[in-house]
Amino acid sequence: MDVMLLDREAVTPKVCGVVRAYPSIWRGTVIDIGCRTRDLEKALALEGHKARYIGVDVDPQAEVVADLGKRLPFEDKSVDVITALDVLEHTDDIHHAFSELCRVARGHIVITLPNCYEVRIRVRHLRGKPISGKYGLPIQRPNDRHRWFFSLDEARTFVGEVSHKNGWKVADERALVGSRVELIRSAVHRWPNLLSPTYLALLRPVGG
């Protein structure tokens, strides 16, 4: 698995890194599931891509309001590129959500997932500190939270196996890391489950 160092000077380092990782795929219609503040749209514009962007979110202000936990309002194989960047871990039924991505897309699927076993999270846990605002037991009912806690290795296995079941394959996968120090690359190659906070995968249809 390749290691990708993110540009911390970018407006949105992770999203810009994803766009730069696969420069040739951003054509036709791009649907951004869980678009939030439409960072992907901004990154595509900054990199000069002219794809038609559609933002999808449960937020009523989104261009298309939809819940990935239910059936998406798109026809089968109707979208050139569909992204779910740090989204699947928020869904109750992650297997259904994944199959919806595979149903709607016809060209490429781009997914990022968090690595909950990354060293900084482990240290916070050992120190008795909250590992993230998306976990824990809040007093007030949260609007959103992570439903799944998994390692980078588990993310790789899940994406590979569930892609295959849905007629897709992993065309590329990378361990993302925010350091600009090139020396960190060899360490992440050796211990991605410990040092990389994010798993990135590019999927294509089997036979495509």
Task: Report on this structure.
There is one protein chain. By secondary structure, the chain is of the alpha/beta class. The chain has a single domain (2-118, 148-205), classed as Vaccinia Virus protein VP39 (Rossmann fold), CATH 3.40.50. Helix content is 29%, strand content 25%. The protein contains seven helices and eight strands, in the order βαβαβββαβααβααβ. The protein has helices spanning 13-21, 39-46, 94-104, 119-126, 152-165, 184-190, 192-195; strands spanning 2-5, 29-33, 52-57, 64-65, 79-85, 105-114, 168-177, 198-205. Strands 1-7-8-6-5-2-3-4 form an eight-stranded mixed β-sheet, sandwiched between helices. Helix 3 (94-104) links the parallel strand 5 (79-85) and strand 6 (105-114). The longest helix is centred in the last third of the chain and has 14 residues, at 152-165. The radius of gyration is 17 Å and the shape is globular. The protein starts with a strand and ends with a strand.
